[in-house]
Design brief:
Domain CYTH: 2-174
CATH topology: Hypothetical Protein Pfu-838710-001
Protein name: Putative adenylyl cyclase CyaB
Radius of gyration: 16 Å
Order of helices and strands: EHEEEEHEEEHEH
Pfam families: CYTH (PF01928)
Strand order of the largest sheet: 1-5-4-3-2-6-7-8
Helix content: 10-25%
CATH superfamily: Hypothetical Protein Pfu-838710-001
Shape: globular
Distance between the termini: 35 Å
Number of helices: 4
Number of strands: 9
Largest sheet: 8 strands, antiparallel, barrel
CATH architecture: Beta Barrel
Length: 177
């Protein structure tokens, strides 16, 4: 179980952002390609206020890892505050078969490239999804507190109207409006 406090920075030039992070001392950690499968059920609906289920397959120079997560939403006021309940799995297909037997019948698969940086107490991810999932790259900033996040946002001179607390599913739905 891990607590995660984060925001997304939308509609910014991610190359310029990457340069800014490096200039203030941010360190490149790794690059990975991910397959993310979000899961829900028409019979046992998991509502946004509670969280969501996800299977993640992550491939990097460290090898391949597979995780099953319930991302429990604590708050989305000014920052997303989640508790991630995660376990490593060995078979995605077997887990999906189990979930289908339990009535989970809604699946969305998205693919993204993630560049991960660290800076002081921050984890900074630059995410580029496949065009069908979300067509624009964005940045996620994760920190121990909402105040820390907004201090870094201000230091990097990112306008506050580019800060979002939406999940990827909410971002996808916002494009359909």
């Amino acid at each position: 179980m891990e607590r995660e406090i984060e925001v997304k920075l939308l509609d910014i030039n991610v190359e310029e952002f990457e340069d800014k992070i490096k200039k203030i001392g941010g360190k490149f950690v790794k690059e990975e390609n991910q397959t993310n499968i979000t899961i829900n059920s028409t019979a046992h609906k998991i509502y946004k206020k509670k969280g969501y289920l996800r299977i993640r397959i992550s491939e990097s120079s460290d090898g391949e890892k597979k995780y099953f997560t319930f991302k429990e939403n604590v708050s989305d006021f000014k920052a997303r505050d989640n508790i991630e309940h995660t376990t490593e799995i060995t078979s995605v297909d077997d887990l999906i078969n189990i979930l289908k037997c339990l009535g989970y019948d809604i699946y969305h698969t998205g693919y993204k490239n993630r560049k991960k940086y660290s800076y002081k107490k921050f984890v900074i991810d630059i995410d580029t999804w496949d065009k069908e999932t979300y067509p624009k790259p964005y940045v996620e900033i994760e920190a121990p507190s909402m105040e820390d996040i907004y201090h870094l946002v201000d230091k990097l001179e990112i306008p506050r109207d580019h800060v979002s607390t939406m999940s990827i599913d909410e971002l996808r739905k916002s494009l359909k409006k």
